[in-house]
Structures are given as structure tokens and as C-alpha cells.
Amino acid sequence: MPDGIVGNSVKRLEDAELLVGEARYVDDINPPGLLHASFVRSEFAHAKIKGIDLDAALNSPGVVAVYTLDQIMDVMTTDRVPATFPAPQPREEFGSYVLAHDEVCYVGEPLAMVIAQSRYEAEDAAALVNVDYDPLDAMTDCRSAAQPDASATDTRNKGNVFSSVSMGYGDCKSVFENAPNVISETLYQHRGVALSMECRGVVSSFDKRRGKLTIWASCQQPHGHKAILVDLLGLSEDQVRVIVPHLGGGFGPKLILYPEDASVSAASVKLGKPIKWIEDRREHLLTTTQERDQVWEVELAADREGRLLGLRGKLYHDQGAYTVRGTNIPFSAATTILGPYILPNYQIEVSVVHTNKVPSTSMRGAGHPQGNFTMERLIDRMAEKIGIDPAEIRSLNLIPSDSIPYEQPLRTQAGQRIIYDGGDYLKCQEELMRTLDYSGFSVRQQQAKSKGRYIGMAMANYVKPTGRGPFESGLVRIGTSGKVSVYTGAVAMGQGFRTAMAQICSEQLGIEPDDVIIVAGDTDTVSNGIGGFASRQTVCAGSAIHMASLKVRKKVVSVAAHLLEASEEDLELENGKVFVKGVPNMVVCFRDVANAVAGIPGVALPEGISAGLEAEVKFKPENVTYANGAHGCEVEVDPETGKVQILRYVVIHDSGRLINPLIVDGQVQGGITLGVGHALYEHMIYDENGNPLSTNLAEYLVPTAPEVPNYEIVHQISPTERNPIGVKGVGECGVMGVMPALLTAVENALQDFGVKLNSYPVTPAIIVEKVLEGGGYS
Amino acid sequence: MAYDFLDIKLIVNGEQVSARVPARMHLVDFLRMELELTGSHLGCEHGICGACSVRVDGVVVRGCLVLAAQCDGSDVLTIEGLSESKEVVDLQNTFVERNAMQCGFCTPGMLMTAAELLAKNDKMARNEIREFMSGNFCRCTGYHAIIDAIEITMEARREEERS
């Protein structure tokens, strides 16, 4: 493919309406007769429900209905929301309840729903519902919950351990017996919330006369939502339409069909009225799925020079109260740990454990950052033990570029081989060191120290699978107006998806990107789709749209050749017109071509030409494609106050061919900032009884503009051969590497105090405590 | 439960508005629900995230922390009115140039605050711009491009003044 429109920083097509307040998010959708829902939520992390008294709420002004599970069971086929990720385990058995009825397993779990004329009145009435609880012991730590004698997190389950898996290769046992260098660490990784600026939300509208349910949802996979609702409500496919309006950020948790989506839809079917529910920020912090709580008990073995010999240990993954999306996170963590390194022996025992916290599902990175964190921290500790430079131990163990494609001796959860398909890891690291002036840092560090300043530097490498299948759909159509439309099952979540897809299509059809209409996130426009997650859409939808555009182009040329009585080889496409090379007056426009195959009643189509000017491709990648990069930073830490200032943050990033460099930079910058939040600020605090203590934005802190630096991003471009456009995914790559790089940099800055950081977030209070433990600052 | 209602008169985006509002209704709910001005967004409803920023009597405020009833007699400007006035059309263009928005949910609030900063007509360093914008959360961009856009616009305005 020639580089023209693709590869340039084309201005985003999305921006015009976002800038003037004309975008329509789910809360901006108000069908006539709209009612509003509010939820009654568990006040305990674990309790039996003895009774729910609805009387006062039913008599509250504006109330239309108050429902517990029993009262909506008549319109549902099951009381649990099916898991949305096909885990090897049964799908229904471990999902959330549509509404809890006999037992609650986390604070915020919905118990009852009020439908009223206004949100204000719905909330008033919800406050009047009286729930009689019998509190039970709650488990908040996944490692404790995994012990055989731990109290049950859910008395309806057989034990707290949802799943145990042993993964690995080689012979760790003998390697660890003989290795000259062995280190052992326990690392804690902390859960946080995605905190999309737009909270979750749904508008469900059941038209009783037509028997059709239309749902506008702030969600990342409309076709998945539709399939679940068809099952749950016992409807047929033609009866359910899911539309994703403007999405105010997703970052993972909006993949899930939540109890609120299910119960609001059930209530709409029951009442035959449109009902809206918009999550507030407190609900978001209580009930939107969270990620990253894991405990790793791991050992790393190396030879005398620092070559890795083996890694072994245990991984405890906190699954939260229910299993709502399978076990992809711990699996991905346990495979991505290998990263860009050669590791001859590996053995990990994975335990997926339920606790009395909100369920865990993917958030930007989906387990991959955890594996990366563990490996990078261990490598730094090993370098320290052996007494070699962190950069040196890395380059000693990196997979050399001439060994790529390189197969890691493991399989993914889906049984796929892990074969890295490109990238030059050493070159990335060396570019990072050059950009950071790594070699000159120790001198700068000493100079700073002489002035009483504590600065530190660190790096982290990563490899991240992107472009997950099984497929994505792309349908390209030129209508009788001559306009070009693209329909896809992928979802525009704010990344600039529409622009990138329009670039891919327009390049093949010889038009401008803003001449392409992108229709994404509507189940009535394409029959299948997978949606937005796993850094997959540019790879999968982009490839589908590219291939469909080529097919449409081919047909345009063939029909135009017929109309112009010219040879196909002599035709060119430009500005929505097809003309004979060198004969500009021999021309037809897309409109003519489309009308020629649109059909006139009773008149035969031209010989050998099929009807319509469209093509649909469902692109099926054979395997994921692996993006990679190197992160590095320089920080200054105030040992007295614990404040960390990031002085520089550099990313050398390789996600193959770039469709739109400006959009790619934006993805990387946003990803890093989430990582900064995880590393330094974002702390979802639960007390020992499972009560969340950080339920507003004054308590749950996220980075704002002054907390983050200007980012320096350098692109390496290793196009992949696993898709026709050579791209790898980028959405989650920015967050990879941030937590280990920042923690190691803080340790490096505070090495005089012997500060060791084995968990994040590293808040100022924690840093001050560690400095005091290390003798204090005077 | 009975609610108090109040009659208010105010100017919204240059137009006179009269309404009977529940005493407890906050300004952004009023703008969004009663006037269908849905450009102001609710991100937290406790005055932290800045997505609801609107201008009341010339000052940017958190629309979720102001009651509609408090705005009786006030002059309110939302993103719709700000855009219509062309006051920050240069900034809006620079937002596009720099890719300073992704999902766009924070963008109207971001522009309201940035408009206030630009109106001060001070020369500000990048870290001062960051400090000024610290009350507006963005979860997509990492702020880099937003600060770029504001800085470029500020410089361009000063350049224009000098010439």
C-alpha cells in the first residue's frame, strides 16, 4: 500500500461536534415518556438478606415501580447475568445476579431498583427502601481468601478459589538448586478504577406494539450486549438493537453487561416505557469493575553474569465477588511476564480467588502490565544483587533481533502459540538510553545530591500482544448518492477510531477521509462484531475495512469500465470519480457507478456484474501481533514530604505501521498517564470489613495536569505481516512499563535510605514511612 | 415529600430565560434537562472533575455545585454560547491541530477554563498553564496535547497583539 493518506496526521473527523457541545452521549438521549432508575445497594461487603421493605418507597412521589429480583423474573430466563467472556468454566454459574436477593457479596451490589418520573425522585425513593441484613465475615485479601480455612466470600459457592492453574516449562527445580544467584520477592499490585470521565449509563426502550427493545448503552461491545440480552430476556435477534452513542471513555470496564443494564432492560420490557439509568461517580467507584489486585510470590534465578536461568512462584489473582468475564487477566499476566527476554525455565501456580470486593475485569492492559511489572522489578533486583547495571542485565537477556520471529515456550489461554513477530528490543532500549542520557545520569545524580536533591532514573521493557481476534467486521458501501459509508462491529470509544478507519478506506477509494461516513456501534447495521478492547480495533477492523475497500474499488473499476467502454487497466480513481488515464472527459462518478448496479425494476444488470456496490469482510487474524517498547524516566523525590516529580518520561514505542501518528501519540500519552496514576496516586482503599473508603474524587486521586510531565515519544516502526496493513495495536501499550519504571526510579532516587518498593501506589505517605524506616532524612 | 419550587429569571447564552425550578436542582441539571443544553457534562457531581464548568457572571464555576435557583438574575454562558460567540475559535482550532481531545467528554469544561486563562492575557509558562488547568480532569489524553493547544493559542494571540 502506498503511503498517502494513511501514515499522516490527518485531523480527526470526530472533533467538530465534541468542541461545541453537540456530541450526544448516552445521558443526552431522552426518548419521549422517559422514566429514570435508581438502585438500592448493599451497605455490607458480605451479608445474608433477611428482607427488603419497599412500602415507603412505593408511596414516594413520582415513583412508578419498585422492583426486587422476584418482580422482574417473569420477563427473564435466568437470575444471573451470563459472563461475557467464554471461560472454560460454565458461563452462568459465577456471574453477577441481575439483582441480589438472598446474599450480597460486595458493597454497592444492587438489591432493588426504583423507577420514577425523575432521577431526583428515584433517588429519594431508593433511600426509603429498608433492607434487613445479617452481616457475614468479609474477605478482602485474595491470598488469605485462598487459604483452605478462610471464611466463605459467597456461601453459595464451593470454596473461594475459582480456578487453579499450573503453567510453565523446563525444569525449575534443578535450576534453582544449582543457580549461583537467586532472589525472592513478594510483589503486590493494586486495583483501581478505570474512571472514564463519562460514567456508565443505559437507556432501554421497549416498544410493546412492535415488540422491539432498543438500548443505547455506554458500552464497548454492542454485539456482545445484544447476545446477552437476547438470552437473558428470551427475545429473538430481530427484537433487540444495541446502539452505542458517543462514548465518554471506556478503558475496559464498559465491556461488561452489568446488573443495572440487565435490570433496566427487564424493567423496560415489563413497563413498556423507556428507562434511563446513569451511574454517578460514587457508584462508579463502588460498582464498576476494577483491576490489578494480584499478589506474586516469586523467585528469579540467574547465572554469575546475570543471564536469567529460571522464574518460579505463585500468583494470586483477586477476582472480586463474582466471575463476570472469565480468567483472562491472570492468564495474560502469567504469559506476558516473559516479555522481551529469554527465560529458559518457568513455573507459576495461578490461583484465581473470589473476595468481597467489586468484580475484577479488564482495564487498559488487562493483566499484561502486571506480568510486566513483576519481571521488570525482579530484573532490577537481580541486577542489584549481582552488582551490575540494570541496562546491562536487560541487554544480556533480551531476545536478539535476528532470533525474531521468536517463540516463547508457552501457550495463551486460548491455546495459541506465542510467537513474537517483529521489533528490535535491544535497539529500543539503546534508543531509550540515548534519549535519556542514561550513561551520564550517575554524574548528574551525584551533582544533584550535593545540592540536596534526590533524583533517580529507571527503565522497563515490554512486549504486548495486540489485535486479538477472533475477527472484526467491516462493510464498505457506496450508495446511489455516491457517498461512501463504512459499517463495523468495532466501537468508537474516543481514540480517533473513525478517523483512522476513514483514512484506511479513503486511501483505497481515492477520496478524502472526511468523505467517508463511519457507522460503528449499532447492531442493526452489521450482523456481527466483537468490539473495543485488547488494542485490537485498528488491527482487526482496520484490516477488514481495508480489504472490503479493495473489493469495492475493484467493483467500481469493473462497472466503470463497462459504462465507459474502456479497459479496467486504463482506469484511475480520484475525488470520487473514475476516469480513463489521460482522457479526463471520459469519466463517471461514484454516483453513476452505484446507480448502474442499484438496479432498475425489470431491467437486467450488465452482463457478469452483481447487484449493489458494497463488500463485507470479517477479518480473522491468524494470531495476535506483538507490539513492544522501552519506557524510561527521571524523577525527583523529596524525602521529607514524599513528593515525586517526574522530570522526564521517555517511551520508545513500536506498534508497527502508524495509520495516524498524532492519534498514536495521544494513545501512548493517555496510557502513560493511567500508569502514573497507578504507580503514584490511585488507591482504592477497603477497610478490613470490605468497606470502600475512597468513594469520591477527593479520596480516590487521579493525575491532573501538574502531576505529569511532557512526554517524549520516539517511534520505531516494524510493520507486521500478520495483517494486510502492517499495524499493531497501541491502546494499552502506553500503560505497559510505567509502574515498574516509576517505582524503580523512586527507589533509585532514595537508595541512600535503602527504600524498597514492592507494591503500588507509592503515595507520599508511603515514601515518608519508608524513608523513616531507612534512618530518616535530616 | 413535597418539594419547594422557585421562579427564576436569568440570561443563558445571551437569551432571557424564565423558569420554575425545584429548589434543589443544580445548575447543570437545569441547563441539560430544562434547556436541552447538553454540552455541559456531569463527571462527578461533587465539584472535583470540572466537566461541568460553566461561566456565571463572568467567572468559571462548577455547574454541579451551584443551584439553578442561585442563578436568578445571573448571566450564564455554556460551551454552546461560548462556541457561538467565537471567543475561543482559535483555541478550538488548535485543539484539533494538536489532538487535544479524545472521547471529548471533558472538552467543553476544559475549553471553559482555558477561555478564562486566555482572557487573562498573561504570559504563562507551561507549568503555570498546567497548574491553572488542574481542576479539569481528562482520562484520555494525558494532558500533554491540551497544554500544547493552550500554549500555542496563547503565543499566537500575543504574537498578533505585537504585530
Describe the structure.
The complex is a heterodimer of chains A (778) and B (163). By secondary structure, chain A is of the alpha+beta class. Among the domains of chain A are: 408-465 and 625-778, Aldehyde oxidase/xanthine dehydrogenase, molybdopterin binding domain (Aldehyde Oxidoreductase, domain 4, 2-Layer Sandwich); 469-619, 2-Layer Sandwich (Aldehyde Oxidoreductase, domain 4), CATH 3.30.365. Helix content of chain A is 27%, strand content 26%. The termini of chain A are far apart. Chain B has two domains: 5-82, Roll (Ubiquitin-like (UB roll)), CATH 3.10.20.30; 86-162, [2Fe-2S]-binding domain (DNA polymerase, domain 1, Orthogonal Bundle). Chain B has a five-stranded mixed beta sheet with strand order 2-1-5-3-4. In chain B, a hairpin with a 2-residue loop joins strand 3 and strand 4 (59-62). Chain B is globular, with a radius of gyration of 16 Å. With 163 residues, chain B is α+β, with helices and mostly antiparallel strands. In chain B, helix 3 (89-98) crosses helix 6 (144-162). The chains are: A alpha+beta (778), B alpha+beta (163). At the A-B interface, helix 1 and helix 18 of A face helix 2, helix 3, helix 4, helix 5 and helix 6 of B.
3D shape of chain B: globular
Judged by helices, strands and strand pairing, the structural class of chain A is alpha+beta
Question: Strand order across the biggest sheet of chain A?
Answer: 3-5-1-13-10-11-12
Q: N- to C-terminal separation of chain A?
A: 63 Å
Note the main sheet of chain A: 7 strands, mixed
Proper CATH architecture of the largest domain in chain B = Roll
Most extensive chain-chain interface: A-B, 58 and 59 residues
What separation lies between the terminal Cα atoms of chain B? 63 Å
Average pLDDT across residues of chain A?
A: 95
Classified in CATH, the superfamily of the largest domain in chain B is: Beta-grasp domain
Number of structurally distinct domains of chain B: 2
**How many helical elements of chain B?**
6
Measured as a percent range, the helix fraction of chain A is 25-40%
Q: What is the arithmetic mean of pLDDT of chain B?
A: 96
